[in-house]
Design goal:
1000 residues, 17-stranded antiparallel beta sheet, 32 helices, disordered N terminus
């Protein structure tokens, strides 16, 4: 019922509260806020702007981070990780103000990348330093690199002709200890190298003796291959240098073999040798790395079927999992996945009224009592609006026919009035006569009323046994003057009107045979589902109910949609009511001051399912939250016996909230495959997770091993640096009227609030995995709101109207509405696939209000139209594109509701992505040069500056999509909330695209 009232009145937020519980239903307007919102201790109206700055979900600076690669190597499936920093953004934060951090343009390696052949001399001097007496030894190396330049040009990114030479020089310096003479010889060995042939020979000879000892040049060449192959751009360069390139079909296996050997070297320095020697000496595999090495070698040797039992090990290495023992990352991921089973068991065994510690025994699936928040809905215009109109038309047609059939038993409501059934049938007949116009929202003007009257006259004639055209002269004009028809003018026809008409008919004609209205009722039900979505709430969670719910999402979720379920406990303390009570004793009846100082801690289990542009994914994590607020307030007004009236004023001087996530994410790739195929595979993954985590007697390592074996494309990510933070300031004022007696009080509050949020940041980064994501969102918001509440209960100081999620001690019901919303956020989402930056990576600017979005698009209208015209495989003209763009803007304007936000997304161009990979490869190789930490530090800083330069360059980004998001959320709190706070909080929030226009 409350949802229906909210929908009808347009309120975007309401709360229902008691001293020990709270339920909140609201627009989740920004994908930035701490989730779930910590239930506020008697929050001020200013707290209403606890919005997010998305979105499940916009790009400012990348906050991605990956764990450092093992010494001497870097994972080709992991993004570059500067050391000792954990992430690109963390590196920038520590280096922007560093005195020794040089700009990209000043650094010799960046200059060499840009200059190409003309920069070779400085490149060799920088990578192979030596005393002047031996400087001539570097000349042959420079000449050798010069000779390779034409052949390496296919591997050079646009604008960086010298990048291949830089990466090759860096890897040769690493392999030879910066010995120019050995580096020259290693180049000769590289140009004769047949890497797959050597590995195949070693595989066939394993157990029969070691191959011939390699020369120093061959060892150096293989070491250079090892370093190069495990960087984002290195393999492309190697393919142009090696005497026998690796076949494209074998390149992935070759890179994984190099990664396996590097991991072995990290555990045993003596293992740095030719892979052929390791393979030839391989006995019965005893470790994950042994199995991965054997699997990769067998595949390269053409024995794919023989390698198949060890596919899981190679897939584990692809995902940066190198060991299965206790304390390993493999064991940690396995343990995290098994938590799903415990969560299901806890939610299944919940009993009404049972006492439990909310900080322990968490289960994210308890939040399914709020349903899936419409995450299973696709774009409104593309799908639901058309389906809604079709269902409503079908229902209207059935209802019209039934109303006409009921005419013989119908009675008019008064003298001179026609039966209401025939009037309503005539209205529906009129609306159905124009199939090109939507039925819902149809307005009636004078011409429409005339047509309705004409149709009604015909129906009356038919009901009287005469032909429809035999209506009495003047009857149409007479009918048009009837109040029944005049009330049609200016009133739109809505779905709810048809439901009311059907209900009236069922009540009035209860004697009709059962089922006569079933078809019309079914059509209206289908229409309502298209408007509001399916009722996906689970009152009782068990494994099969959860399976059905998740698989429903998998089959219906659309791109860029995200659902997060969280449940756990909140612990806090606040001085608001205590300080107000003390002030009341001291200051008398006219003024009561209060101090709003509070501290809160939260801990929740988090489950998230999403389908971003690049994959479909599940996250299993734990979230820890902290919140602090400092403010002051006062109540001013007289105390007149049992009555009191006055004003509340509250100021939030400072509020800070933060949250951190720890857990794992499972991903299946979406790019380059039909979505139907992805849904089928992901549905199978859901089955395996639910069955595997709840099966009795499952060995600790079995589930993850089975998943890696059964799903070759599966990405297993350990979450790195991830969380939310924001600062809030606000002001509120309200009027209060209350009556109290016998220790009880009842009152009414109404007022308004203004709040600003700054420093709003949300970041996420993967620490491992073949596909890694870095997401960073930063923005601000300003919100003004009005609201009211009714309260009754123990006599305590009158608290403020609660416009956010805050729980006051005596609130029965409260509601709020936004009257001012402003703000925007920038989002950068960076996707690395097998170490390389994917062109699906994007920057997005999102607006909290429609006007800001429209102004932004208007400024970039020309850029957008040019992008549409340049889309490959299309024939378009500028005039048509301007019209289509304006049509989209008009459409989102008509759809605008408080739950909508609006975004302009641009993807990075393929050429810019290649340059970013080159810069990141150079930084990775520099990290491995431990002999000169300061030089490596400068190189890494310069390469990151160059990467940021690419993202900041408008020429590196290309318009991709205009979109409107719909964001909804529900949250509930139950527990103690009087001075101290201790209780359970459950939240479900989601976002999906409601409308979009793509550049392609």
């Amino acid at each position: 019922m409350l949802d229906r009232i909210r929908h009808m009145t347009g309120l975007n937020r309401y709360t229902v509260e008691t001293p020990n519980s709270q339920h909140q239903q609201s627009a989740n307007k920004a994908d930035m806020s701490v989730r779930p919102n910590l239930p506020a201790r008697a929050a001020s109206p200013a707290a209403a702007a606890a919005t997010e700055m998305a979105p499940r979900q916009p790009l400012a600076a990348t906050a991605g981070g990956e764990s450092p690669a093992p010494a001497g190597m870097a994972s080709p499936v992991a993004p570059m990780t500067p050391s000792p920093a954990r992430s690109d953004s963390a590196l920038r934060r520590t280096q922007v103000d560093s005195a020794d951090a040089c700009t990209a343009a000043q650094h010799p390696l960046v200059a060499a990348m840009v200059q190409g052949a003309t920069g070779l001399h400085d490149l060799v001097e920088q990578q192979f330093p030596g005393v002047p007496q031996v400087s001539l030894s570097r000349l042959p190396l420079q000449e050798a690199l010069q000779a390779l330049m034409p052949g390496m040009s296919p591997a050079a990114p646009v604008g960086l002709p010298g990048a291949p030479a830089v990466l090759l020089a860096q890897s040769l310096a690493l392999a030879t200890g910066a010995d120019a003479v050995r580096a020259s010889a290693a180049i000769g060995a590289l140009r004769q190298l047949d890497p797959v042939g050597d590995i195949t020979d070693a595989w066939h000879l394993r157990g029969e003796g070691m191959p011939a000892s390699p020369s120093q040049a061959q060892q150096d060449a293989w070491r250079a291959v090892l370093d190069m192959a495990t960087t984002p751009s290195g393999m492309r360069v190697l393919q142009t240098v090696m005497g026998q390139p690796v076949a494209p079909a074998q390149e992935r296996d070759f890179v994984l073999l190099m990664k396996t050997v590097s991991a072995m070297a990290d555990r045993n320095v003596s293992a740095i040798a030719r892979p052929a020697e390791l393979i030839a000496g391989l006995g019965a595999p005893a470790t994950l790395l042994d199995e991965a090495l054997a699997c990769a070698a067998a595949r390269l040797a053409g024995e794919v079927q023989a390698a198949r039992p060890d596919d899981w090990a190679l897939n584990a290495v692809r995902n940066d999992l190198f060991d299965t023992g206790p304390g390993s990352d493999f064991a940690a991921v396995q343990s995290r996945l098994m938590k799903m089973g415990r969560w299901i068991g806890r939610a299944t065994n919940d009993r009404w009224g049972a006492l439990r510690n909310p900080m322990k025994g968490k289960s994210a699936f308890r939040a399914l009592r709020y349903g899936t928040q419409q995450v299973d809905r696709g774009p409104a215009v593309a799908r639901h609006r058309k389906a809604f109109d079709a269902a409503l038309r079908g229902a209207a047609s059935q209802l019209r026919d039934q109303l006409v059939a009921l005419a013989p038993t119908a009675r008019s409501s008064g003298p001179g009035q026609v039966p209401v059934e025939l009037l309503r049938a005539a209205v529906l007949d009129h609306c159905l006569a124009t199939p090109d116009r939507p039925l819902d929202g149809r307005m009636f003007d004078a011409a429409a009323v005339h047509d309705v009257a004409t149709r009604l006259a015909g129906m009356l004639a038919t009901a009287g046994g005469r032909p429809a055209g035999a209506a009495q002269p003047g009857l149409v004009e007479h009918l048009k003057q009837q109040p029944q028809l005049r009330t049609l003018v200016g009133a739109p026809l809505r779905m709810e009107q048809l439901e009311a008409w059907l209900a009236d008919a069922l009540k009035t004609h209860a004697a009709q045979p059962e089922g006569w209205a079933d078809a019309a009722a079914a059509g209206l039900q289908r229409a309502r589902v298209e408007v509001q979505g399916h009722d996906t709430r689970l009152q009782q969670v068990d494994r099969e109910a959860l399976r059905k719910s998740l698989k429903h999402i998998v089959q219906n979720i659309e791109g860029s949609s995200r659902l997060r379920l969280s449940s756990g406990g909140v612990l806090g303390v606040g001085l608001r009511h205590l300080s107000a009570a003390v002030s009341g004793l001291v200051s008398g009846f006219l003024l009561r001051g209060r101090v709003d100082a509070r501290k809160q801690w939260g801990r929740q289990a988090v489950f998230e399912i999403a389908m971003p542009p690049y994959d479909m994914e599940i996250m299993v994590a734990t979230q820890r939250q902290r919140a602090t607020q400092l403010g002051a307030g006062a109540f001013v007004g007289p105390h007149l016996g049992i009555a009191r009236a006055g004003a509340n004023v509250d100021v939030t001087a400072y509020a800070s909230e933060s949250a951190g996530l720890k857990g794992v994410t499972l991903r299946l790739p979406r790019i380059g495959r039909p979505v139907s195929e992805l849904r089928t595979e992901f549905s199978r993954l859901v089955d395996r997770l639910l069955d595997g985590t709840t099966a009795a007697g499952n060995p600790p390592q079995d589930l993850l091993k089975q998943l890696l074996q059964e799903f070759p494309g599966l990405t297993v990510n350990r979450i790195g640096l991830a969380g939310d933070e924001r600062k809030r300031h606000g002001f509120s004022v309200e009027g209060v009227a209350a009556v109290q007696a016998a220790g009880m009080r009842a009152g009414v509050n109404a007022g308004g609030a203004l709040e600003v949020q700054r420093g709003v940041i949300r970041h996420y980064e993967d620490d491992s995995g073949s596909m890694q994501v870095q997401r960073h969102i930063a923005g601000w918001s300003l919100r003004g709101a009005v609201g009211a509440r009714i309260s009754a209960g123990p006599s305590v100081d009158a608290g403020p109207v609660n416009l956010n999620s805050g729980n006051t001690d005596t609130t029965l019901v409260g509601g709020s509405a936004d009257v001012l919303v402003a703000g925007s956020s920038d989002r950068r989402e960076v996707v690395y696939q097998d170490g390389r930056l994917h062109p699906i990576s994007f920057h997005e600017t999102e607006f909290q209000n429609l006007d800001g979005f429209l102004a932004h698009v208007e400024r970039r209208r020309g850029e957008w139209v040019r992008a549409r015209l340049a889309s490959p495989g299309t024939e378009r003209d500028a005039g048509t594109e301007h019209t289509k763009l304006q049509g989209f803007l008009d459409e989102v304007t008509r759809q605008a509701t408080p739950t909508h936000t609006y975004a302009f997304r641009s993807t990075i161009s393929p050429s810019a992505a290649e340059r970013v990979d080159a810069y990141r490869s150079a930084a990775l190789l520099a990290q491995r040069q431990g002999a000169a930490p300061s030089a490596a530090h400068e190189t890494v800083a310069a390469m990151h500056a160059a990467v940021e330069g690419e993202w900041a360059d408008p020429a590196s980004l290309q318009p991709y999509s205009l979109r409107s998001y719909e964001r909804v959320a529900a949250q509930g709190f139950k527990g103690l909330n009087l001075v101290a706070q201790f209780g359970s909080v459950h939240a479900a929030d989601a976002n999906h695209i409601d409308n979009r226009l793509d550049a392609a």
